[in-house]
């Protein structure tokens, strides 16, 4: 992402934060008691997921009243327009308040707004990889590309009481994530957000000498170009709505570094594998989401070349989306 040197990022963040706090103060005055959610069984999410039941919109709209404007009936069932980024953002705010006690959460316009259940699944599968790490054992994770939302660290703290370092190359993402952490006491001492100032590196520059992590995680940019990202978004909207979107419609958020990079997913993860050799004593398990199945075999071959001792591929599925986690270690 190119930064405008004349733009006052600090002023922009402070203005956004004041609006954020004013809305949050109003919420705290009328916050409803959380209700137990009925168990309407869904499939495919991790067995430990707290999202293995349909969203209880009656409760979620008490927590985030504006969400009610985006709920409608379909096939005698309440649902949401998941192609609308504002609807997804409001749903995320409600879910984070309901399940993880996150009182203050917001992201700037046009930044990636990830779905909470799928992100929680990644966390649960990492817990499996760590042999069911309990809350009594202090685990520290490294989130590469944490984004403005800081979602993976928030969920990791809420589910397993882990500690996190989140990194990002985008200064607005870093400042926004830091503001979210600072504004929520339950996570304030558990999460640190650092800026990666070396755009050509992934681990170099953000891991301190002698620092130890049980794992690293990453949801990498998987498109090769903005045009490819646009086409992928068009397919996504059509799958969600059944309609062909207008050519100008670019409905999901996301900055360049979040959506695409030169060479796409395989180039990014290949670089991650190369760099991981130098940090074999700092990180126990390296992990990364892989969205394109055809990339698995060449990446496994690359891991053989760097002599990774253990390599695992963990399948994940949420609804119509299928992805997998590639994990490797050197011990």
TrEMBL record:
Subcellular location: Cytoplasm
Root EC class: transferase
Listed GO biological process terms: rRNA base methylation
Reaction catalyzed: adenosine(1618) in 23S rRNA + S-adenosyl-L-methionine = N(6)-methyladenosine(1618) in 23S rRNA + S-adenosyl-L-homocysteine + H(+)
Keyword terms, alphabetized: Cytoplasm, Methyltransferase, rRNA processing, S-adenosyl-L-methionine, Transferase
Gene Ontology cellular component terms for the protein in this record: cytoplasm
Superkingdom, natural source: Bacteria
SUPFAM superfamilies: S-adenosyl-L-methionine-dependent methyltransferases
Protein EC: 2.1.1.181
CDD domains: AdoMet_MTases (cd02440)
A Gene Ontology molecular function term of the record: 23S rRNA (adenine(1618)-N(6))-methyltransferase activity
The protein's role, per its UniProt record: Specifically methylates the adenine in position 1618 of 23S rRNA.
Family: Belongs to the methyltransferase superfamily. METTL16/RlmF family.
Protein name, UniProt field: Ribosomal RNA large subunit methyltransferase F
Organism: Saccharobesus litoralis
Lineage of the species this protein comes from: Bacteria, Pseudomonadati, Pseudomonadota, Gammaproteobacteria, Alteromonadales
């Amino acid at each position: 992402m190119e930064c405008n040197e004349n733009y006052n990022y600090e002023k922009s963040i402070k203005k956004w934060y004041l609006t954020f706090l004013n809305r949050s103060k109003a919420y705290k005055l009328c916050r409803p008691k959380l209700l137990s959610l009925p168990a309407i069984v869904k499939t495919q999410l991790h067995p430990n997921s707290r999202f293995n039941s349909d969203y209880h919109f009656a409760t979620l709209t008490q927590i985030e009243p504006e969400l009610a404007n985006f709920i409608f009936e379909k096939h005698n069932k309440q649902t949401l327009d998941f192609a609308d980024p504002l609807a997804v953002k409001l749903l995320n705010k409600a879910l984070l308040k309901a399940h993880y006690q996150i009182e203050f959460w917001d992201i700037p316009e046009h930044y990636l707004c990830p779905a909470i259940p799928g992100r929680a699944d990644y966390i649960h599968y990492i817990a499996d990889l760590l042999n069911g790490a309990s809350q009594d054992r202090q685990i520290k994770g490294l989130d590469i590309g944490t984004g403005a939302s800081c979602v993976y660290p928030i969920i990791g703290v809420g589910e397993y009481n882990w500690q996190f370092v989140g990194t990002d190359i985008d200064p607005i993402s870093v400042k926004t994530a830091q503001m979210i952490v600072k504004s929520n006491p339950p996570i304030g001492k558990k999460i640190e957000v650092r800026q990666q100032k070396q755009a050509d590196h992934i681990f170099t520059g953000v891991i301190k000498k002698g620092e130890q992590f049980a794992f690293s995680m990453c949801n990498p940019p998987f498109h090769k170009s903005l045009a490819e990202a646009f086409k992928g978004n068009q397919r996504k909207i059509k799958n969600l709505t059944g309609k062909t979107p207008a050519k100008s419609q670019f409905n999901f958020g996301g900055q360049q570094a979040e959506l695409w990079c030169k060479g796409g997913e395989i180039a990014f993860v290949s670089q991650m594998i190369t760099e991981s050799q130098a940090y074999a004593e700092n990180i126990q398990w390296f992990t990364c989401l892989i969205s394109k199945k055809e990339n698995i075999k060449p990446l496994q071959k690359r891991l053989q070349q760097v002599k990774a001792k253990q390599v695992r591929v963990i399948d994940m599925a949420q609804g119509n989306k299928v992805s997998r986690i590639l994990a490797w270690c050197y011990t």
